[in-house]
Amino acid sequence: MKNVATISNKISIFFVCFLLLFTSLQAQSTYTVQEKQQAKEKLLQRVKTYSKKDFKKFHSRLPKENPLQEVLSSYHKNLIVLQNTNEVAEIEQLPTSIRTPAETEEIQAVFIAWPMFAYDINGNQVSPISNNIGFRYLSDEEYAAVIQILRQFPFKEDSISASLHVEIVAYTPDVDGNSPYAPVWAQLAVAIQEEVPVWIRIHSGQDSVDIKNYCLQRNTPLTNYRFFMIPQGGNDFWARDFSPIGFYHGDQDSLAFVDFTYYPGRAIDDSLGNYLLPQLGYKLYQTSLMNEGGNFFTDGNNRIFTSSAIVESNAQNDGQIIALTPNTNPTYRFRNSMTSAQVRDTLRYLFGADSITIFQRLQHDGGTGHLDLYLRQLDEERFMTTDFPEVYNNPQFPDYKKIRSHVGTIRQMNGPYNRPFELPTMPLPTNDDGSFSTRGNQYTQDARNYINGLLVNNTLIFPTYSDMLSGNTVADAEAIEYYKRALPGCKIIPIDSRILSPSGGALHCVTMQIPAENPLRIEFAPARGTFPVTMQNYDITTRITNRSGIKDATFVWRKKGTLQWNDMKLSENSSSNFTSKLSLQQFVEGDEIEYYIHSESNNGKSMNKPMSAPKGYYTVKIGNITSVSENKSFDPIGKIAVYPNPIYSNATFEITTLQPITTIIEIVDQLGTIVGTVFKGEIGKGTNFLPIKTESLSSGMYYIRSISNDKKSIIPISVIR
Asked: At 696, is the pLDDT very low, low, confident or very high (cuts 50, 70, 90)?
């Protein structure tokens, strides 16, 4: 009994001191420069004692809640039911002719939010909630003592909860020598600045000095950068999720931005666009639709992909914090909830989308439900996805079948040139010891992947999970080779991201690309694979646009094994289409043609397609495939053939099936436009001969596309008049 009484007395004394401490902190709202400097020095001394675990607890992908919330019976009710004010603000009228560029298109900069420490007047680190207010972190001893108090005095819930909301005196960047985060941001900044300026969020002018000095001490100085001072500070560093998304509009491709509503509890980050974009002179359109940038991407051709997390979050009506002062509990505004149909309609309106694909969210991806943890785009016709090994196909990892289903959905889609999307896969990273975490509740604790990287024009920056001392260096090296094959000519930069993945993200999650001004856009469906040896010409068609018009368009080619590139001028026809013919009679079977498109605008802009040219380029072979195309992906189909090829008048499509199938066989041109139908309906088992009529077609290269049982195949044909 004596020990119990002693503990109770200690808790009571702690409780009194605890409340007196916070009451005194809240009594004063302004501090002198000297007091703030002393507070910063105290914080930095504390930071020097942090372990890696200490650093990690200050950053989470999802908003932090009051540390006591799980033991406060009335806390959630207080947050949500305090004020019944409907959010009435609607997005203003958007401009016409909206197009949201893909991440694979040219960009002018990359925005990052350097990790920061927020602190109170005593130098204690604070988790920011809204402007100048945050949660005061508790030590393990303090937390245990408060729990004891709450159990003895449950009527003190509100006052203790409120006492954790303290005033933020200032912020300072994380540039501590022991920090596991600062090196990642330094590597990111240096990698980005080799291609475009890196834009960095800071709180004060001194922050820029601290960051530059830190990078200089690492012998990786900042040379191509711009700091953006946001006096309100920030909640965390997950820039992908809270940054506005750029789009083009009108016939001048003017650049503007749309800003989603961010997580409730991240009010400071949610307001970034209001402070960032006025410094740049761009128009910002805000919407009450709640979503995060990691759960949104477009192919640049009016198609949007997201997950059901956007539907779930918008079905709720809790919005952002609108009132919070020291020593009080926050008040959230109420939002108007949305149905799934309303979410789709809003996305169409905001981003000029023709197609919205909403995949079912994963259960074990680190907690966000975001697509960028297992799916990315390589170019307008190719996606890349994580290939989870067969060992993940078990009842404890239901996401295995979900991902397979999502990939199957994309495989059934056509890209902008009416050709099926390609989906190369990337292996799944292992744990440091080479093992896999095959149970969902294990994998979600550290959802590693190689997909969550950033394409910065001709450079790919992506997450790896090893260094000179630990991790699976062999697997990381293989991932680098995968990307070299997938993105020829691009510079590949790996960054060890093991400090980020346990929080539910990686490098894509902490960056946001800024679309280019004055874009020069080249739409081109490259010929890949093999040309028949009998094919006379390669008919080249590309659409090139720029606000000032096109000065020059060139098809640049060479035969593999030669060094000299050959230029062939493209002629403009109509609607910004440029065409020409490459004679194939100069090549023999086995030759390979390497090629790309180059263009210059009237206002001095130049661009290549692919962007990595001439280091990267397209390749097509000359081979003996005049009539037969074996297609192993067609399970019920044994053989398909087109003859004669080239076609001078009419031709025959021969298809041998192992069972009756329903099929559609079409003729498409090089821009993916359907220009004829060969057959549509059911064909019987055995060999079938279908006539191909080409009277209405001009000379040029086309494709015969067959779709059977949701599987697709393409055979190139040449029509000669």
From this structure: confident
User: Residue 38: its pLDDT value, please?
Assistant: 96
Query: Which residues, at least 6 apart from 594, have a Cβ–Cβ distance to it below 8 Å?
Result: 557, 558, 559, 560, 617, 618, 619
Closest to 116 in 3D by CA, of 129, 131, 128, 133:
128
Q: What's residue 625's pLDDT?
A: 53
Residue listed under structure tokens 């979503």:
291
Alpha-carbon gap, residue 582 to 562, rounded angstroms: 17
**What pLDDT does residue 368 have?**
93
Beta sheet of 425-427, edge-to-edge order: 375-379, 382-387, 425-427
3-state secondary structure of 512: strand
User: Peptide bond before 646: cis, by omega within 30 degrees of 0?
Assistant: yes
Q: Is 395 helix (H, G, I), strand (E, B) or coil?
A: coil
Looking at per-residue pLDDT, the higher value among 29 and 693 belongs to 693
Q: Give the count of beta carbons closer than 10 Å to the beta carbon of residue 403.
A: 19
Q: Are strands 425-427 and 382-387 parallel, antiparallel or unpaired?
A: parallel
Average pLDDT over residues 638-665: 81
Q: Is 445 helix (H, G, I), strand (E, B) or coil?
A: helix
Alpha carbon distance 84, 104 (integer Å): 43
Q: pLDDT (tens digit, 9 = 90+) per residue, 465-497?
A: 999 999 999 999 999 999 999 999 999 999 999
Nearest to 556 by CA among 514, 512, 522: 522
Given the structure tokens 């495989």, which residue do they identify? 411
Per the listing, tokens 């309100």 go with: 232
* C-alpha closest to that of 241 among 204, 214, 269, 207: 269
The answer to whether 456 and 513 have CB atoms below 8 angstroms apart is: yes
DSSP per-residue letters across 397-435: -THHHHHHHHHHHHHTSB-TTSSBPB--EEEPP--TTS-
